[in-house]
Design a protein that fits this description.
The protein is α/β, with parallel strands linked by helices and about 220 residues long. It has one domain: Rossmann fold (3-Layer(aba) Sandwich). The protein has ten helices and six strands. It has a six-stranded parallel β-sheet with strand order 3-2-1-4-5-6. The termini are far apart. The relative contact order is 0.20. Bound molecules: adenosine-5'-triphosphate. The site of adenosine-5'-triphosphate has 18 residues, from helix 1, strand 4, helix 5 and helix 9. This is Probable nicotinate-nucleotide adenylyltransferase. GO terms for molecular function: ATP binding; nicotinate-nucleotide adenylyltransferase activity.
Length: about 220
């Protein structure tokens, strides 16, 4: 069977160490060789990113330039209409074939709200879910039914992720990285430094482009 391939979807407005560091640790823990970053095309009815699609993609490129674990997939950005994660995973499953182990990486905050995603029950028919810890979010699901769904699919064996194409959830003991894109944007609005929160090449780009200066208060 081909080696496990994982994807991390996100708005990346901007990409930061909270995306990169837990996933690097996850790769060590699970034997992942490749992680594809998949910037979202944000639906018009949702709050729009402050950076343009091109700027968000450029920041991802700059962040991963010296991190060979990561690659970038621009497919969601190239669409005229936003796509749901489940649809992107269906397209990828078609490309990789039925046998390829595929995983979608999420933070604990996303696991807690996964049941609000479009066709969320189909996700595990298409991929595994790899969950990174995130500070400030409970470890238990909201309801007994959701907890039971989680328990049914949980595995503690990283090797199992390589042995079947989809269907498992792995909660990884990744480092807690207390960073969010919201905090970065807020710090910039308030004229504070973000030096410790994201790669220097991305900070330079943000400064050159004058991003996140508008105050929303
Ligand atoms: P925002 O603050 O704008 O909502 P964000 O920082 O949460 O953004 P996203 O691009 O929305 O970043 O996140 C993409 C994915 O990365 C999500 O699955 C999210 O759970 C995960 N993620 C983001 N930040 C962290 C973090 N600090 N630790 C673990 N996972 C994270």
């Amino acid at each position: 069977m081909a080696s496990l391939h994982a994807l991390l979807g996100g708005t990346f407005d901007p990409i930061h160490y909270g995306h990169l560091r837990p996933v690097e640790a996850l790769a060590q823990l699970t034997g992942l060789q490749k992680v594809t970053l998949l910037p979202n095309n944000v639906p018009p009815h949702r709050p729009q990113p402050e950076a343009s699609s091109a700027q968000r993609v450029r920041m991802v490129e700059l962040a991963i330039g010296d991190r060979p674990l990561f690659t970038l997939d621009r497919r969601e950005m190239q669409r005229k209409t936003p796509s749901y994660t489940v649809e992107t995973l269906e397209a990828l499953r078609g490309e990789y074939g039925e046998q390829q182990p595929l995983a979608f990486i999420i933070g604990q905050d996303s696991l807690l709200t996964l049941h609000t995603w479009h066709r969320w029950h189909d996700l595990l028919t298409l991929c595994h879910l790899l969950v990174c810890r995130r500070p400030g979010y409970p470890t238990k699901m909201e309801t007994p039914a959701l907890q039971s769904w989680l328990d049914t699919h949980l595995t503690a064996q990283a090797t199992a992720l390589h042995q079947q194409p989809s269907g498992l959830i792995f909660q990884a003991d990744t480092p807690l990285v207390p960073v969010s894109a919201t905090e970065i944007r807020q710090r910039r609005h308030q004229g504070q430094s973000c030096d410790d929160l994201l790669p220097p090449a991305v900070i330079d780009y943000i400064e050159r482009e004058g991003l996140y200066l508008k105050s929303f208060t």
